[in-house]
Records
---
Amino acid sequence: MSKKDGGECTEKVRRYMEQQNRPYSVNDVFMNLHKEVGKTAVQKALDQLTAEGSVREKTYGKQKVYVFSQDQFPPLDESQLQEMDRKAAELSATLKEKEKQLCETETQLRQLMSTPTTEEAHSKATQIEEEVSRLQQKLSDLTENRVLVSKEERDKVVKESDAMTRQWRKRRRMAMDILDAILEGYPHPKAQLYEEIGIETDQDAGVTLPKV
């Protein structure tokens, strides 16, 4: 390596140590510079910088650690240090708050992703309402016309009606939970939301949820 190349390597290592201002081993510097400077060249540069006083060397067992000499920086008075501590505390508090908000947002997102969309819930509820209405009408026709049917057939119809009613109630509750979640951040009345997304309530459809 020429003196010019060696000087460039040393300057690159010096700039890096000054910018980072934290302890590193030779291998740390070599890897963090993305191997732009050979490991041997990094060692020579650190040795030279240590000899010049730009870098301090500490030995921990068999490991040598290097850090930029703090004497190279302008001195800080007590008020500056206090201000830096205050800003550090503020940033730490802000970071904790942002992490908390991120965690809450991720939880809400997982919940929303696991539930059907408003459109899907509304479509399913409409289908169930139509099926329940059909079965109720069928049961009403059988009752009014006094059509003789077997106990098994009647029980089957009642069972299907009850099952559909339970599904209606379940889907209605899911739809209302989703709508309530939306309304928490919606700036207008509930009626306006229903109108905007095309929600038709039981009252609008003229139906009443029967008791199972």
---
Amino acid sequence: MKNVTDSFLSLGHWPSAGSFGFNTDILATNPINLSVVLGVLIFFGKGLNDLLDNRKQRILSTIRNSEELRRGAIEQLERARTRLRKVEIEADEYRMNGYSEIEREKENLINATCDTLERLENYKNETLHFEQQRAINQVRQRVFQQALQGALGTLNSCLNSELHFRTIRANIGILGAMEEITD
């Protein structure tokens, strides 16, 4: 212990310039080195401590901000999941309503097509009936014309002028009698 105190006291007795060398006395040099290192650490440690405290506060602040952002992100994720579930439910409803609507439209189209086909069938039948009646009337007219021509030809060949005059007078008499009845 005496050596340690002696080394501190002997600081003022160091020989002045002229000799430079290594002190090999470990007990004399270690306390000086330690005191210098401790002095430097204490001097710079205060600033370092403030620097570390600031750094610690920034890290804690960053962690708090990150936690808040994480909570916000989780809330947004939950809201997005909720919206997604709602949208999926709505999509399923639209899909089912769409299928129902398609089936209704299909049924309506089939019914409308059946109605149209039925009307066309009725129109076709009416047209066929009309054409048949027209054809029958044309045949009747031709038969009547041919019969009339045949009858006229027969009458003209069979009638002489006196028989012709008597037939005309008889018809005029019938017409006159009919005129008296109506008056």
---
Amino acid sequence: MEPMDTVGKSKEDVSLPKATMFKIIKEMLPPDVRVARDAQDLIVECCVEFINLISSESNEVCGREERRTIAPEHVLRALEVLGFGEYIEEVYAAYEQHKLETLDSPKGGRWASGAEMTEEEALAEQQRMFAEARARMNNGNVNPPRQSDSD
């Protein structure tokens, strides 16, 4: 039986995409430096453990505030508690940059901030989308055929 490192998951179920991690490792090093495959695997395992550690401590910080949702400030506080305080400024800057990038992305755009659409506009858009969906469901028929009682 495998050890359960994460709630409900075996160690093999919890990992990071190795190709992405290897690319990050390669980009951080000078071009003439090579990294052995087992060293790359070890770095990936360290990253997984770090994520587990930060997540667990963030959960503890969140719980002490009697909250159920871990917020960015809980993660930053967890970094401080775990002795990674010197990274907080850089982590916060990366978080702020991420927020800016996701607001400008198609996924984050006008739906993420909610500030670009009034409630009335959102309701009108919702009604328009419902009407389109109904039309598609009815194959373009506004009034779908009714089944007779004799069927």
---
Amino acid sequence: NLQQQSQTTTLLFFLESFSCFSNSKDIMGVITYDLEITSSVPQAKMFKAFVLDSDNLIPKILPQAIKSSEIIQGDGGAGTIKLITFGEGSQFKSVKHRVDGIDKENFTYSYSIIEGDALMGILESISNEIKIEASPDGGSICKNSSKYHTKGDVQIIEDQIKGGKDKAAGMFKAVEAYLLANPDAYN
């Protein structure tokens, strides 16, 4: 129905802010999206800011998107549960985010959105795998794969998420802009 499609579009537009993606594959209740975004910021610096310090940095530079992020269980490593509270610009209140894995040496991070009003009753969870690679020019490439685990026979079409792709890249680019404007940060 039209209301469900509108809610689904809104949900995906919002969630793309946290799960950068562009290409999609639909696999029996799991929809996969992949994206690559390039940056002039070196790999280690981008990983520190975009992944390791995102709980502090994102609310600082994008408070309309994320108001706060707090650890409610764990020590920051695998198994940690975080409560992400959205900014006033969001129609959603919060989600629970579980850290599935983090590898500081290989610049990889995986996490899942496991609970919250942003799942809108149509998704079981969203799993994300982020890898920040070095680019030949000394910058970095953010590679992200997001898997949307739908409930029942919910169908999400790629056309519903096109508008959010720019927003997803915007969050990464906001971190990049902060790092370029503050060259001594995260050294």
